[in-house]
Description:
The chain has seven helices and six strands.
Amino acid sequence: MSWYSVIYTKARHFRSQSPVLGTLLQWSFYVCVLIELLLYGGSSFVYFSITTQIIESDIQASIYLVVYGLLSFMMVWAYARVISSSPNRVPREYEFDEATDAKLRAVTPFNPQGRPMMDQCNETQVAAQRRIMDEFAAARGITLVEVDQHSRLRYCYECRVLKPDRTHHCSSCGFCAVRFDHHCPYLNSCVAAHNYKCDDY
């Protein structure tokens, strides 16, 4: 777990104990976004000042300013789309009911911290886990391609969901994100299916 994931996890725990102060704490994580916007505003001011004072040709200065303005607009638009888009969560049909989740947990070893130890399952446990998840997927009409090294469908014991392909649990946000790439502390959000294209800009 990364250093910022530890901070996010502790902030979520604090929010569960103190909702008001916890919400304010989580909003404070946008300080990186604010710093980036201030740096962008300052650099734009410096660029406009230099361009208008150093370049003597009005036509050349106008071309520079127009190109910079267009590129800046694209950057700000993409950045605003990234930070304002909510990560795509796993659909409800992938969520296990309590009974099925209990069956799966009964055949899964856990460490003292409550984390599943999937690599230490014996053949009987692996077969039982595979059967439970395959039956659930068949009952819901779910077809998945991605499996683990033991040919089991992937399951998140924290979110209690069967993971769609390319879905991973974000320890910073505390839930599974579809087509998860990484969590960016400078955006205070995940880079995933909902904002891939804008993040590329």
